[in-house]
Amino acid sequence: MKIVVLVKEVPDTYEARKLDSSGMLARTASELVPDEINERALESALRYQDAHKGTEVVVLSMGPESTVKTLRKMLSMGADSAVLVEDSSLAGADLVRTSAVLAAAVQREGFDLIVAGNESTDGRGGLVPAMVAEHLGLPLLPSLDTLEITAESVSGSCAIDGGTLVVNAALPAVVSVTERSAEARFPNFKGIMKAKKKPLAKISLADLGLSPEPGARSTVTAAVERPVRAAGTKIVDEGQAAQELADFLAANRLI
Amino acid sequence: MANILALIETTSTGGLKSSAAGLIGAAAQLGTPVAVLAATPGAGAASVAELGRLGAAKVYIAEGDGVGRVLTRPQLEALAGAVEAHGPAAVLVSNSNESRGVAGRLAVRVGGAVAAEAVGVRADGGRIIAVHSVFGGDYTTESTIEGGLPIITLRPGSIEERAEAAIPEVSTVTLVLAAGPAANIVELREAPAETGRPALRGAAKVVSGGRGLGAKDNFALVEQLADALGAAVGASRAAVDAGFVPQSHQVGQTGVAVSPQLYVALGISGAIQHRAGMQTSKTIVAINKDEDAPIFEVADFGIVGDVFTVVPQLVEAIKARQLAAV
Ligand SMILES: Cc1cc2nc3c(=O)[nH]c(=O)nc-3n(C[C@H](O)[C@H](O)[C@H](O)COP(=O)(O)OP(=O)(O)OC[C@H]3O[C@@H](n4cnc5c(N)ncnc54)[C@H](O)[C@@H]3O)c2cc1C
Ligand SMILES: Nc1ncnc2c1ncn2[C@@H]1O[C@H](COP(=O)(O)O)[C@@H](O)[C@H]1O
Fold it and tell me: Which parts of the sequence belong to the Electron transfer flavoprotein alpha/beta-subunit N-terminal domain (chain B) (predicted)?
């Protein structure tokens, strides 16, 4: 079994994140890290590998050169090899473009199963996995809280408005996982040392046979920062606080 | 006016999901709303009156056996058929776990482009603009689509505009799913019906509890205050992870983003990822033992105190006022 995990590098959600005036991510404003959801996606693949020797796990990302750091972390967690699609003409690529590039790259790599995050913490679009699946003519099991992988199939459960869907598909297939899925392991010292020697291939658009001009695309036309919120009253409870809060709510017509 | 398609989400019994009103409402901001529905054979007609009441000028129904058994593809084929039949200026889809994949696939299929997780839409001359709330409300951005069909996914519960009722023109086609790889729906487990409380998305008041509640049974305190205020119940990720409440109640970066008149945070530290889902609330109240908890940085009214002492007193104080007002 060969599992390709799609990994995106994102600004750390533990810090304030910034856009520049053109609405593009200000890459220097915050530290860039593997998206937490992609560590969980990798964990799902590694758990299958732990139980089934001979499973190959590849992490794949489209991003700038700096993404190497994210891929090395994934290698130190236990992935076997990494692929980075890096091309200056991909800066600011939208969802359509990103998914076309990722689909071409996974096809070149070969796979039985593709595991992605349900949505990225910087974009929150949650559309790339479905678009990659459409390019490849494959089924997608989206937003899985639980995931079971067998040699022939994948299955799991997905929360929807009004309940939970239990879904399955034969391999090859694409799945995306949520933050309710497998909690990621920490890389250990041995893993970090081994990661330095694992293969990390960098490929360009030309390697994928893709042209640099995008077709239909979405572009940001405006970006406005919200004014900072000021702190208000803070009181220490000495038995009177509940009454004062009730007064505050009443004065603001909230009760 | 140009046709604007809205993909309608349905329940297992064929009823309309609550997202329908906002989808049709948003479509009416841009042109003539066309509701697109995938239904089991013979089941589509039952929804027409309701779709008309919500403002659909036209209803495109694709009926076939795959609906409810195969994931995504029936809705994708319905939408692709409607694109051909109605030549729309834009397509609107709910950004929900079940529907957004349809939007992504349609974009690839018809050579369109997607504006994802919009919280508003408007027409600007010949262009269609999608409005987005980015990084937990830190930024508001606008985007437009060039060179292809605009496909816009809408954040559930974010559209307040409603369309005027109409008497829809209906067309019904047969949905045929080509053989091929598919994701199958094995089972739908219906969630137990919610108690009389308002839904978290779009609620005017929200009371959320965090890890500070300490145990599942103690979460009743959050519910008691919510009921006294007529509020929806929310939670931090830590409270969800601890099993105090189901994930659908999670507020934040990876949960629901809320923007109510009143947000009350009980025993929540106010991690940046939690604030990302509630910092645009009109009024924020926080009760926390730790005077340095970051939640106080965004609170209009903060109490440094124990939720187990303050909340019961607060519930009593609110009830007393409500009685006095009668
Ligand atoms: C990628 C990513 C996404 C995330 N998404 C989300 C998200 O969507 N939503 C979210 O909430 N978190 C999210 N988190 C997690 C977030 O970082 C925090 O871990 C989480 O919000 C903490 O929840 P909490 O405030 O309930 O718990 P804690 O941080 O443990 O805080 C508990 C608070 O309760 C107070 N307390 C304890 N006992 C009492 C008492 N008796 N009375 C009063 N106060 C008391 C304590 O002083 C403390 O401040 C995300 C994290 C990551 C990395
Ligand atoms: N540039 C990228 N490189 C690799 N994987 C990506 C990229 N963008 C998105 N993905 C994958 O798609 C998932 C959902 O992303 P999104 O659709 O952007 O919310 C992510 O969690 C990744 O698994």
Answer: 4-195
- Whether A139 contacts A169, CB under 8 Å: yes
Which ipTM was obtained for this model? 0.94
The candidate with the shortest Cα–Cα distance to A184, out of A89, A30, A69, A44, is: A44
CA distances from B273 to A12, A29, B279 (A): 10, 17, 10
Domains in chain A: ranges and CATH? 2-208 (3.40.50.620)
Helix ranges (DSSP H) in B31-113: 48-53, 73-86, 100-110
Q: pTM of whole model > 0.90?
A: yes
pLDDT at B69: 95
Average pLDDT over residues B236-265: 96
Chain B nearest-CA distance from A5, in A, is: 18
Distance CA B43, CA B46 (A): 6
User: Which one is the CATH code of B205-325: 3.40.50.170, 3.40.190.10, 3.40.50.1220, 1.20.1530.20?
Assistant: 3.40.50.1220
Contact B314 A246 (CB under 8 A): yes
- Which pair of tokens denotes residue B15? 């009823």
Identify which of B12, B108, B291 has the shortest CB distance to residue A134. Answer: B108
